[in-house]
Prior knowledge:
Number of domains: 2
Helix content: 40-55%
Mean pLDDT: 75
Order of helices and strands: EEEHEHHEHHHEHEHHHHHHHHHEEH
Distance between the termini: 53 Å
Strand content: 5-15%
Radius of gyration: 28 Å
Structural class: mainly alpha
Largest sheet: 3 strands, antiparallel
Amino acid sequence: MELLRTDSTSSFCCAGHTVRADQPLCQVEPAIYSWRSAIQTRRAFSCITPTYHSPAQTKARKLNQHCVCVTLDRPEVFPSLANKLGSNANEMLSSSVCHHFFSDVVVFVPSQDLDRMLAIVGALEAATKLPDFHRKQGRKELVAVEDGFRESTASWETLLTGLRERGLTTAPKLAVGDGAMGFWAALSKIYPTTDHQRCWVHKMANVLNKLPKAVQPKVKADLHDIWMAETRIDAHKAFDRTLKRFEAKYSKAMACLAKDREELLAFYDYPAEHWVHIRTTNPIESTFATVRLRTKRSRNCGSRATTLAMVFKLLQSVQKRWRRIKHFQKLELVVSNIQFQDGEQVTDQSDKNAA
């Protein structure tokens, strides 16, 4: 791609147009979609009226007659995006997710490539208008099935490495699981930045198993007060009350509860509408029950390949009945690194740091 800068007019020539440095290079009408579609379009490119007089300008026109300037002017675009994104515009557009949205230099694209880009954008826009597209918003999906040895670290590393090699290069924001140490060790190695959330159903079962049956209802009620608290501070207070009340007589049970304190309360850093989905792994456990029912009936499942195929088809069928995520639109905020405190979006980051 050749570009000629004419010193006499201090301007750039592209697509037969002269674009002066002191004027907006183009305009944009962004289309912001939900997190699941992740579509951001750039359209309505415009340049100022062409003026060609000198031989240098004529040569520039010939060299760049098939080029189009597609650079977005940051000051011009931000007000438009602020209307759509509100107070989150600066944070979202400056995040690593949207680092490619603007360019600090003039960018030229051949007109043929631009036509292909606009055709792709048109196809994506048409797809998002289909009824099936909207019905699938917020649905959970099965991403991997692997056989392993007693949930060992090596087995979990194989599964997570496979996910990364198949395209999950960006670390998940949050992982939810029981106390299987193999999973957490492998996760810390493959995706070290992912937050950990321990399953409250598993933790309550583990704690209650270490208590006499006569005491279990009292402790269970106190545990409910912890994970049902409206704020992290209230949860910590309920946590301290439970430990103080039962630690002297039932030290093993309280030690089991206290060792995962921070991991049990990680959900407070995410939207409150999502808490019901991330406090427990119950959806996965109910799915495993379907698989176990089938494998017990079959008795001899056959080879490793046939067993994995059967399990995969069962899970693929069960996922159609999985509960959709409430207010899935807020997933876009989570992916864009917008901070939440006690389930509510943090509007002023300095306030959170001060707290």
